[in-house]
Design brief:
With 258 residues, this protein is α/β, with parallel strands linked by helices. It is built from twelve helices and twelve strands. The strands form three sheets. Strands 1, 3, 4, 8, 9, 10, 11 and 12 form an eight-stranded mixed β-sheet that branches. Helix 1 crosses helix 2. The radius of gyration is 18 Å and the shape is globular.
Length: 258
C-alpha cells in the first residue's frame, strides 16, 4: 500500500542538521528533476527578492521565505515528518507514533512535493516554500515537471493499493494509468451537520491525518479498494464508495466532528 499525502504550506525549519543531499533521498530516479527545480528556485530567489516573492505568490509579510529559499543548498535539514506541519500533519502525528507504526510509515507513506517530487517521512529535507501552482522561470509549471517524472515512479512504489489523499493542486502532479486506476482509492472527507454535507478544509485535513494514523497503528495492508473500505469500517469510519472512475474509486469519509 502506498499512501500519498499533500505537503503542507507551513513548514518547521531545522535548527541544526546536515545540508541537503539530493542523492540521499528516496526515489533516486527523481534526482535530475529535483536538481532542475531546486536550481531554478534558488536562482530566482537570489536574483531579485521582490520579483521572486511575486512569482511565488507570497504576501509581503512572508518575504523572509524568499531569503530562506535562496540558501536551500546550505540550509539545515530534518526528517520530512518533522518539517511538514499544519492541521493534517498535527493530526497524523508521525513523530509520536509507536516504533512499529513509524516503520510502516517509512515504507507506506509518501508526500508529494513541488520541490522534491516525492519524499518518504525519513528523508532529510530543508524547510522551503514552493506551492504546486507556481511556474518557475526557465522551468515552467512545476506540476508539469512532476507529471513527467512521477509517471514512472509512483506505479513502482505502489506495489498494490494507492490511497490518494492529495489536495486538488497536487493531484495534478500524477494521474494513474487505466491499469493502475482500479487499485487507486481517492479519499474525500464530508462534514455532516444538520442533515447537510459539505467539504470543509479544516475537517478535511484533520480527518485525513487521523485516518492515516489509524491505518498505520492498525497495521493492516489492504491490497484492494474493497479491502481498504472493510479495514476503515472495522476501525470505526463511515465510508461511502463511489463508482470506479478514470483516476480511481472515490471514497467519501463522512464525519460529524474532528
Amino acid at each position: 500500500m502506498l499512501i500519498l499525502l499533500p505537503p503542507s504550506e507551513g513548514k518547521t525549519a531545522a535548527g541544526r542538521g546536515k545540508p541537503l543531499d539530493l542523492d540521499s533521498l528516496s526515489f533516486p530516479e527523481l534526482t535530475s528533476a529535483r536538481r532542475k527545480v531546486l536550481d531554478a528556485l534558488v536562482e530566482l530567489c537570489q536574483a531579485d527578492a521582490e520579483h521572486a516573492r511575486n512569482v511565488l505568490g507570497l504576501p509581503p509579510g512572508l518575504a523572509d521565505l524568499v531569503a530562506r529559499n535562496a540558501t536551500l543548498p546550505q540550509a539545515a535539514t530534518a526528517r520530512a515528518d518533522r518539517v511538514y506541519s499544519g492541521v493534517l500533519y498535527d493530526a497524523l502525528g508521525l513523530p509520536g507514533l509507536p516504533p512499529d507504526a513509524r516503520r510502516r510509515a517509512t515504507s507506506r507513506v509518501a508526500v508529494v512535493s513541488s520541490l522534491f517530487g516525492l519524499v518518504r517521512p525519513t528523508d532529510r529535507i530543508p524547510a522551503y516554500r514552493l506551492s504546486g501552482d507556481v511556474s518557475l522561470p526557465g522551468v515552467g509549471p512545476v506540476a508539469a515537471v512532476w507529471r513527467s517524472a512521477l509517471d514512472d515512479v509512483v506505479p513502482g512504489a505502489a506495489g498494490g493499493l494507492v490511497v490518494d489523499l492529495r489536495s486538488t493542486t497536487y493531484a495534478g502532479f500524477w494521474r494513474p494509468q487505466p491499469d493502475l486506476a482500479r487499485r487507486v482509492a481517492t479519499v474525500r472527507v464530508l462534514h455532516e451537520s444538520g442533515g447537510r454535507r459539505t467539504v470543509v478544509s479544516h475537517f478535511n485535513k484533520a480527518t485525513k491525518g487521523r485516518l492515516v494514523r489509524d491505518l498505520l497503528l492498525d497495521g493492516a495492508n489492504p491490497r484492494s479498494v474493497t479491502a481498504l473500505v472493510a479495514t476503515l469500517e472495522r476501525l470505526g469510519w463511515t465510508v461511502e464508495v463511489g463508482d470506479p472512475g478514470r483516476y480511481g474509486t472515490q471514497l467519501d469519509v463522512v464525519v460529524s466532528a474532528v
